[in-house]
Amino acid sequence: MGIDEGGRRLMGRVGFGVAVGCAVVSCAIAAILVGRRARSRRRWGRAVEVVREFEEGCSTSIGRLRQVVDAMAVEMNAGLASEGGSKLKMLLTFIDSLPDGKEMGTYYSLDLGATSLRVLRVELGGTRSMILRHQVESQPILPYLMTGTAEELFDFIAMTLQNFVEKVEGLEHTSDLRRELAFTFSFPVRQISVSSGILIRWTKGFAIEDAIGKDVARCLEEAMSKRGLNMRVTALVNDTVGSLALGHYHDEDAVAAVVIGTGTNACYVERTEAIIKSQGLLTNSGGMVINMEWGSFWSSHLPRTSYDISLDDESPNQNDQGFEKMISGMYLGDIVRRVLHRIAQESDIFGDAARCLAVPFMLRTPLMAAMHDDASPDLREVARILRENLEIQDIPLRARRIVVSVCDIVTRRAARLAAAGIVGILKKIGRDGSDGVSTGRTEGKSRRTVIAMEGGLYVSYGLFREYLNEAVVEILGEEIAQNVVLRTCEDGSGIGAALLAASLSSNQ
């Protein structure tokens, strides 16, 4: 009995010890889990805080937008007063009349882009007939042409045009009939007439040194002449001016054009007497189209964040194109990426994705737009894009919602700032309703104003377009805004340019 009792006591002590040990282990495990949950909450809280701070930094209150409107109008005046007087270049195009629908005949246009050359043929039927037919062909630009010689590039352009003319005209083609041609050349040039301009520098990956300082229209005409093409460059334009021409062809109330795509720019019709830096300038219409180059606009009123500053610091054109870097498709996706990278560094909601998110331009704007547009309950498109493009696996739903929020903040800011820029143009030409006679009122009635809108960001990105349109109404007020029409147009750089060739040739 003594031995059995001792054994029982020993077993009891062992059991008690085991129980105590288990309790200790359980408490330790519980403490670890509680600690992890607490850290997870803190990390999640930090992710939310990063987004909140970013949203505050991107604020586009109506008061701030009106400050941007005023700054845009002031810079426009400064750019018209003197060369170098403003961040806005306010370049003369020497175009003093726009297509009105009465043009007749067959015209060609060339559109030299970053990766391709487009050739177009447009047949016009005069009043009410409008555009009877248009044909287009595209050829890729091989890398060696982008870094070779001017002769090689312009011979390629002339050869492509020659092949196209022979294909579409066939037996009708005759070298005795001179054709009018518009050349859309969206690179920095110093325009010296409506049909000529000196190349200042290349962009978009081109680096043809011996072309700089040359008249690009003359280079093209020499290449065409060598190939027996009886054609004359009637208009040397950029894509924004082409958009205005197309807009005015369809609606005579079109007075400005804005392109918001990979890049961004705007142009408008200005009174000749307001172009102070070119005193003595005479035009038949009393006005001239001004190429603003508004991507370079800057104002202290623009809501700039640390992410915008780092993007600019790492860009090849630092301290330049500030407005473009906040509103155009080239940069919006990368701003989102920078915010997500910060979140990944300060929280664990994206797992170990910080490495992929550190790569510049890893997230392109079309992917950002697709995530922003995801209307599925579980945001499955967001999950797919993050998984396939940024290697972010198994991201929880609440983290996906964070991503969509960042996309929305970036898009909303960009659209509202672009709207302020548009209203700035309206203010400059007296169509914003801000003061008496210059509001464009005639006999007590507000004048209708049309802005031609082009570019993938505006045309194809529904939420961007919605935010922009809403902001225009918000800034102007409903009474004035009902007389302002933002009209989408397509292919100003092609069809619009050909229409300019028709308009200019008929006026000569």
TrEMBL record:
GO terms for molecular function: ATP binding; D-glucose binding; fructokinase activity; glucokinase activity. The keyword Repeat does not apply. Residues 51-249 form the Hexokinase N-terminal domain. Keywords: ATP-binding, Glycolysis, Kinase, Membrane, Nucleotide-binding, Transferase, Transmembrane, Transmembrane helix. InterPro entries: ATPase_NBD (IPR043129), Hexokinase (IPR001312), Hexokinase_C (IPR022673), Hexokinase_N (IPR022672). The keyword Metal-binding does not apply. The chain crosses the membrane at residues 14-34. Pathway: Carbohydrate degradation; glycolysis; D-glyceraldehyde 3-phosphate and glycerone phosphate from D-glucose: step 1/4; Carbohydrate metabolism; hexose metabolism. It catalyses: a D-hexose + ATP = a D-hexose 6-phosphate + ADP + H(+); D-glucose + ATP = D-glucose 6-phosphate + ADP + H(+); D-fructose + ATP = D-fructose 6-phosphate + ADP + H(+). GO terms for biological process: glycolytic process; hexose metabolic process; intracellular glucose homeostasis; response to glucose. It holds the Pfam family Hexokinase_1. Residues 256-502 form the Hexokinase C-terminal domain. Its EC number is 2.7.1.-. One of its GO terms (cellular component) is cytosol. Belongs to the hexokinase family. This is Phosphotransferase. It comes from Dendrobium catenatum. The lineage of its organism: Eukaryota, Viridiplantae, Streptophyta, Embryophyta, Tracheophyta.
